[in-house]
Amino acid sequence: MSKIRLTKEFRFEAAHALLGYDGLCKNIHGHSYILRVTVKGRPLEDDKSPKYGMVMDFSDLKKIVNEQIVNRFDHSIILNKKVPHTSFKNVEDMFERIHLLDYQPTCENMLVDFVERIKQQIPAEIELFSVQLYETATSFAEWFAEDN
Fold first, then answer.
1. Rounded Cα–Cα distance for residues 32 and 15 (Å)
2. How far apart are CA 69 and CA 122, in angstroms?
3. Distance between CA atoms of 38 and 138, rounded to whole angstroms?
4. Most buried in the list 31, 53, 92, 97, measured by CB within 10 Å?
C-alpha cells in the first residue's frame, strides 16, 4: 500500500512580545495563527477495523493538536519567562491565560515547541511529516522531519 500524507489546519488567536527585540515586536501584539500539521503513513488494511482505509482518523489528529496546542494557547499571552513581568502589577492576576515560556516566543521557537508536543502524542506507526505555523497571512515557519 502507498504512503499517504494527511494535513489538518488549525487556527488560534494569541498575543506575544519578543524580549530585547529591536523593533515593534518588543511590544505585546496579537496574531491570528494558522497551524498546518501533516502526518504520513499507510492506510490501514484491516477491513474489520472502523479505521479501515485511513492513515489516521482526522478526528484523532484534531484531538491531539487541540489538546496540546490550540486549547492551551488560544486567546493567551505568550512571553519569555525572562520578561520582567514582576514590574507589572499582579500580571498573573490580570490575565487568565498567560504562558511564561523558557524560550523567546518567536514563530520559529513556538513551532519547535509545538512539534515536540505533537510528536509525543501521535501513534508510533504514524510519522509527523511537516508542520507549518503562520504568524500572519504572508509569514510562516515550517518544520520537516527529513531535516531533523
1. 9
2. 14
3. 20
4. 31
Distance between CA 16 and CA 96 in Å, rounded?
A: 15
Which triple of cell numbers denotes residue 92?
A: 498573573
| Phi, psi of 146, deg, nearest 5 | -65, -20
Cα 43 to Cα 10, 60, 99, 124, 131: the distances in Å are: 23, 15, 38, 14, 20
| Domain definitions of the chain by residue range | 4-142
3-state secondary structure of 19: coil
Distance (Å, whole) CA 24 – CA 18: 9
CB atoms within 10 A of CB 99: 17
Please report the pLDDT score of residue 82 as a whole number: 87
Question: In order along the chain (148 residues), what is the average pLDDT of each group of 10 residues?
Answer: 94 95 94 98 95 96 98 95 67 75 97 98 96 97 97
Per-residue pLDDT at 92: 61
Only one residue has cell 519547535, namely 112
**pLDDT at res. 90:** 60
Q: Fold for 4-142, please state it.
A: Tetrahydropterin Synthase; Chain A (3.30.479)
CA 35 to chain CA centroid, nearest Å: 6
